[in-house]
Design a protein that fits this description.
single chain, 287 residues, alpha+beta, 3 domains, five-stranded mixed sheet, five-stranded antiparallel sheet, 15 strands, globular, disordered N terminus
């Protein structure tokens, strides 16, 4: 017990030392800042936003000061104390998260299926009844939460495009080594980043690839073609090579207050309504 207590005290001291060092390092690097930008919304335009009340603004004077600085001096960045910066950042993140809430899933038994990366029929019906039907290609996996020390289930969607039946194309794909790092493909010929028969297959299927498209083999029977911030997935399923659009994050399921709560995945930079006006906030530190 004495050893455990000593370890706990040592760990606490180490944590405080690291925290103090981080704050000191931030001060040396030029400090931290809050950036504000007002966004004009057209009449009747449908948007998703989180509202910051007068009481909340009083509890986070750093945000109010940043807004005033923007309104008076048109200054988009305000350098602030690190502790106040962190408080404001955590508050804004919490408000953003709450604004994406859709509905609750009351059946706790469904969590067992989620832990096994399964979307059960009952859950599909719940999504559909709330106006958010899932496609047959929807999948779920578990990720670490960025707000709390718990897990989040993320539902992704993709769209089927076509199948590849040419065995010579499959032979080309199988000659690509499985990637062990970033998505890069360096073929012997620098003039042909995508195998020629695969490129021709995409053209004949109505999805021509740009000249700078690249390919990586992520798993034994899974390839990814990427270009310009998007791409295609190729998966071998039941003996066929199927081509899909890039997977996109569609929903997140959080376990909060004993319930499974469904949130929409953010498709645009979050907006915050303050005193009838709409703003974007960002938090950074000087180089």
């Amino acid at each position: 017990m004495g050893l455990l207590r000593a370890f706990s005290i040592s760990f606490a001291a180490l944590f405080l030392t690291i925290s103090a060092w981080f704050i000191w390092a931030m001060s040396l690097s030029g400090g931290v800042f809050i950036s504000v930008e007002e966004v004009n919304i057209s009449t009747g335009e449908k948007i998703r936003y989180a509202e910051i009340t007068e009481d909340e603004l009083e509890r986070y004077p750093t945000l109010e000061k940043a807004i005033d600085e923007y309104a008076i001096n048109k200054s988009r960045s305000l350098e602030v104390d690190y502790e106040e910066w962190k408080r404001a950042r955590d508050f804004i993140e919490k408000k953003r998260h709450e604004s994406l809430y859709l509905f609750d899933i009351m059946d706790g038994e469904l969590e067992d299926d989620l832990n096994r990366s399964i979307i059960p029929v009952k859950m599909r019906r719940t999504f559909e009844s709330n106006g958010y039907p899932l496609s047959e290609y929807a999948s779920v996996y578990k990720v670490d939460s960025y707000l709390k020390s718990n897990w989040v289930y993320r539902i992704t969607e993709k769209r089927y495009l076509f199948s590849i039946t040419d065995t010579e194309v499959e032979e080309e794909l199988n000659r690509i080594n499985i990637s062990t790092g970033s998505k890069t493909y360096m073929p012997e010929s620098k003039d042909d980043l995508i195998p020629i028969k695969l490129r021709n297959t995409f053209v004949s299927s109505g999805f021509p690839l740009p000249d700078d498209a690249r390919i990586s083999r992520e798993e034994h029977e899974r390839w990814y073609i990427f270009f310009g911030g998007t791409g295609y997935n190729i998966l071998k399923e039941e003996g066929r090579l199927n081509v899909y659009t890039e997977e996109r994050n569609a929903f997140e399921i959080w376990k909060e207050e004993g319930n499974l709560k469904v949130y929409e995945t953010e498709l645009q930079e979050p907006l915050f309504k303050v005193q009838g006006r709409y703003y974007k906030f960002s938090f950074g530190h000087a180089d």
